[in-house]
Structure formats: C-alpha cells, structure tokens
Design goal:
By secondary structure, the protein is an alpha+beta fold. 46% of the residues lie in helices and 17% in strands. The chain is built from 12 helices and 13 strands. 35% of the residues are buried.
Length: 397
C-alpha cells in the first residue's frame, strides 16, 4: 500500500509528539523522584536529629546517689527520666514513653523519684496522673506550690543548705564523721516536728527553710546536707513502730550506717537545742528493733554500729566507769553553758541510779554546794527505746 506525503507527514508528527511526551514524562518523573528523594532524605535526617537530640537530652541527666532508680527496669527508668525532666523544666506533662506501665508500678516509680531527688520538693508526687494509650504512656504533672513561685523557693533551699554547711564549719572538720554529727545536730536545732498538714512540710524545703517538717522532710534535708559535703546518703522508706517513716542510710569511710534525725530530735519546746544521738549510725540489726525498711534489697547493708557514744568517749561499761564520764561531761557542759549531758551505760539505764551517780559527781566537784551553779535536780530522757543511751538535763540556778 502506498502512503501519501501528507500521510507520511502525519505519521512523522505523531511519532515526534509521542517522543516528546515520553521525554517530558520521564523528565517529570525524574523531577518528582528527585524531590521525593530529597523529602525522604530530609525526613530521615529530621528523624535522626530528633533521636539524637532525645538521646543527648537523656545523657545530660546526672543523678546523684539515685539508688532507687538503679533498681528499676529499663521501661521504668524511661518513665522515671521523663518525669524527672518534666519536673526540672516545670512542664505540665512528661514526654511520651513507648512502653507499658501500670498504675501500681508508676506509684513505685514516683516514690523513687521523690526519694532520690529531694530538690524536687515542689512536685506533688502523690497526685501525678499516669495517662495510658496502648503501649505509650505519659504523665500529667502536679505541683504542690504555684509554679511561678518555684524558682524563688529553689533559691531559698539552696541558700539554706549552703548556710547550714557554712555554720557547721564543715571545711574545718577533720573527717566525715565529724561533719555528719555537725549537720545532724544543726538540722535538729533548726527544725521542729511539724503538726501542720501542709504538703511542703514533707520536704527538705520544709525542714531547712520553714524549719518545720515531718520525718521525710528531715530525711530529705539530711540527704542534701550530707551530699553537699561529699558524703553518700540515701532516704530509706519503711516503718517505725509500725507507722510509715523515712530515715537515712549514710556511707562513712566505706561502711554504711542508719541515721534517724527525727527520732534524735528531742522536740521539747523548753529545750529546743537538745539533740539525742540514740539513732545515730546504727547497724541494720540494731535499727530493726523498731524500724523496718520497705525495700531492704535496694539499700546496701549496714552490718555494724559506729555510734555517737563510742566515738565521743561517752560509753561506759559499768556505773563506776560512768562516774568518770559524768564528771568530765559536767565540767565541760557547765563551762560551755550547755544544760544537758549524754551517756551510754552498758550496765544500766535506770534513772535513779544514773542521777544518783551524777549527784555524787557534783558533790565531788563542788565541795561547797553554794558554789555549784546548777541544782541537784535532773530530768532523764531515754534517747532510744531499745538501748541504754540517755540524755540528762540539769538546771542552772
């Protein structure tokens, strides 16, 4: 069949048109792929950047003696960290965590954050709300004080810690034991056992700034004070005489001891500066007579005592040896203007025996009773319900 020139021209035009269409289509597809590739590459870069930022953010957290966190699973640590970051940044919600945590486990985590981090005194850990979406969780934060007031309150707590350490002249003390005694006594002299229902009294802020706290406030304050001078310290959850309680575990020269500042606070309105030391650096065995830890597997073991009375030369085996201690302590206390002495007598803690011994010492020291600056009248306080540690108060004329 013959094809006319006109027809040939038509076919040529069709072929050219098809060729152009293919070329333009390929170019468009290539451009589309180019932009699509760039978008994919950009999205991947953004994802990597977000993951890196998230990783870096988590790496920035430097916990101090966070022994409770160390006991958690990886998922629990992720939630712990997200709540911690939210609390530090005063956020309304925590980051979303890709894990599954139930309410019971979260309550444990919240309590652990509080025990590890006394500086988060402004968080109401009992009211935090766990939000669960399948295998994702986040937390609605609740603060016990107005958020706008928190920075000023943080500065107040920081100042109180620094001032207490400075007042105790810790830099001039020769060892950690001396620092521990000084800070223990300073806290007791500053703080009273709270009768208020205000949540802030559960905190270190209550103890060190408001000077009024519950047992947990004493324990969190002791943790902050001891850590400030380089002493490892933890808040221990448990019970004392069957009632919920918090005390401390401290590391002195590589060994651990139990310390209960609240139970060493005489809390007497007429003797505000009186400190007991019946619960100072006790072993787990000694403390277990009236204290029970809630998480004994988490804390290091305290296998021996390093009690105040032995360290300071106030421990006597017999009443006769107690007489010499009484004599020395009376003279020192009177010279310093103190109104009480402390002693531990292995033989007895009987009030009549000890006060009779003290009266004999007074007679020996002051042959003329008129020259004696104190009355022969004493009040005996038992510094521990389960030991022979006593504090004896006397009265100036």
């Amino acid at each position: 069949m013959k094809v006319s020139v006109k027809t040939k021209r038509f076919f040529i035009l069709v072929l050219i048109t098809l060729a152009l269409a293919v070329i333009l289509g390929s170019a468009a597809f290539g451009i589309k792929m180019l932009f699509s590739g760039n978008k994919t590459e950009q999205t991947a870069k953004e994802t990597v950047a977000e993951d890196t930022e998230k990783s870096d953010k988590r790496a920035e957290i430097e916990y101090k003696n966070a022994i409770y966190r160390d006991s958690l699973t990886d998922d629990e640590k992720e939630v712990y960290d997200s709540v911690y970051r939210a609390a530090v940044s005063l956020s309304d919600t925590s980051e979303i965590c890709e894990c599954s945590i139930d309410t019971e486990r979260f309550e444990k985590i919240a309590g652990f954050i509080r025990a590890d981090n006394p500086k988060l005194f402004y968080v109401n850990f009992d009211e935090l709300v766990l939000e669960v979406e399948k295998d994702r969780v986040y937390v609605d934060m609740v603060y016990s004080v107005v958020k706008e007031n928190i920075p000023a309150m943080q500065a107040e707590l920081e100042s109180a810690v620094s001032e207490t350490v400075a007042e105790c002249m810790c830099d001039e003390l020769e060892n950690d034991y001396e620092k521990e005694i000084a800070l223990h006594d300073a806290l007791i002299q500053k703080c009273v056992n709270s009768k208020s229902v205000d949540l802030i009294n559960n905190t270190a802020y209550g103890a060190l700034v408001l000077n009024e706290a519950y047992c947990d406030g004493y324990a969190y304050a002791m943790k902050l004070l001891l850590e400030r001078v380089g002493i490892e310290a933890y808040a221990v959850y448990g019970t004392a005489d069957g009632v919920g309680h918090v005390w401390n575990l401290v590391n002195i020269d590589g060994d651990y001891y139990n310390l209960d500042a609240l139970w060493d606070d005489a809390n007497l309105s007429f003797a505000p500066n009186m400190c007991f030391h019946g619960y100072f650096n006790l072993s787990d065995e000694k403390l277990s007579l009236d204290h029970t830890a809630e998480y004994p597997g988490i804390m290091p073991k305290a296998v021996k005592d390093y009690d105040f009375y032995s360290y300071t030369g106030r421990k006597a085996e017999t009443v006769d040896s107690a007489t010499e201690i009484f004599r020395k302590e009376l003279v020192n206390s009177i010279n310093e203007g103190k109104y009480y002495i402390e002693i531990f007598c292995e033989e007895t803690a009987d009030d009549a025996v000890l006060t009779g011994c003290l009266s004999d010492c007074l007679s020996d020291i002051y042959e003329n009773s008129d020259a004696c600056p104190i009355y022969e009248y004493f009040t005996v306080y038992h510094a521990s319900a389960n030991s022979n540690a006593v504090t004896i108060q006397f009265y100036y004329k």
